[in-house]
């Protein structure tokens, strides 16, 4: 089942009642966190929108430094494996960010958790990548080009302005992953192979 939004993760981080835009995963040099910084600056006057960066990695110190002065940004450490569902469920919108050229050689594993969470996805990633294709084909969110901050902000504006549309995207993403990645479907594919 899809995890409730108003859960323990939200309570622990003071996010109850907020619209949570979340990046969860590696806080590394491959992700353009300046895009989240620009979004947080754009939404400074919206007390209902809060950005969460949950994870650790090589860029964490830099992210901590710019986020420290922003009331609408929370930066938190990885959660234990048994709390990942709660973490992802606490979001209203999941972000997948990867710098230009990097999605040609890898697919961020966070795609599958984001889809399973039943939350819409906003991806800034190479066109034609697996993430862009899945998000678009499943109707699970929007995909914009990598490191394209104006397009990212425009897509974020459109998604946040349509909560019902975001919920529908999340449901479609969850249904897609259930059809595509469930143990039963994988077993059938293996048997066919």
Explain this structure.
With 193 residues, this protein is α/β, with parallel strands linked by helices. It is built from 9 helices and 6 strands, in the order αβαβαβαβαβαβααα. The protein has helices at residues 8-12, 34-42, 60-67, 84-89, 110-116, 130-138, 149-160, 163-181, 183-192, and strands spanning 19-24, 49-54, 73-76, 93-97, 121-124, 141-144. Strand 5 (121-124), helix 6 (130-138) and strand 6 form a beta-alpha-beta unit. The chain is globular and about 55 Å long.
Strand residue content: 15-25%
Segments where pLDDT lies below 50 for 5+ residues? Answer: none
Largest sheet strand order: 3-2-1-4-5-6
Distance between the termini: 29 Å
What value does the Rg take, in angstroms? 16 Å
What is the helix fraction of residues, given as a range? 40-55%
SS class: alpha/beta
Q: How many strand elements?
A: 6
User: Sheet with the most strands?
Assistant: 6 strands, parallel
H and E order: HEHEHEHEHEHEHHH
Report mean pLDDT, rounded to a whole number: 92
- How many helices? 9
């Amino acid at each position: 089942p899809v995890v409730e939004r108003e859960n323990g993760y939200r309570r622990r981080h003071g996010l109850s009642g907020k619209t949570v835009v979340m990046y969860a995963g590696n806080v590394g040099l491959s992700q353009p966190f300046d895009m989240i910084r620009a979004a947080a600056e754009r939404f400074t006057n919206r007390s209902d929108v809060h950005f969460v960066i949950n994870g650790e990695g090589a860029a964490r110190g830099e992210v901590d430094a710019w986020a420290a002065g922003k009331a609408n940004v929370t930066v938190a450490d990885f959660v234990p494996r048994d709390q990942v569902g709660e973490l992802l469920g606490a979001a209203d919108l999941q972000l997948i960010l990867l710098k230009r050229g990097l999605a040609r050689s890898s697919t961020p594993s966070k795609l599958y958790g984001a889809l399973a969470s039943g939350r819409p996805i906003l991806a800034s990633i190479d066109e034609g990548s697996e993430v862009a294709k899945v998000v678009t084909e499943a109707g699970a969110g929007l995909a914009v080009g990598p490191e394209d901050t104006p397009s990212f902000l425009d897509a974020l504006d459109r998604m946040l302005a349509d909560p019902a549309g975001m919920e529908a995207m999340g449901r479609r993403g969850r249904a897609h992953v259930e059809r595509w990645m469930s143990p039963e479907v994988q077993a059938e594919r293996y048997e066919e192979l």
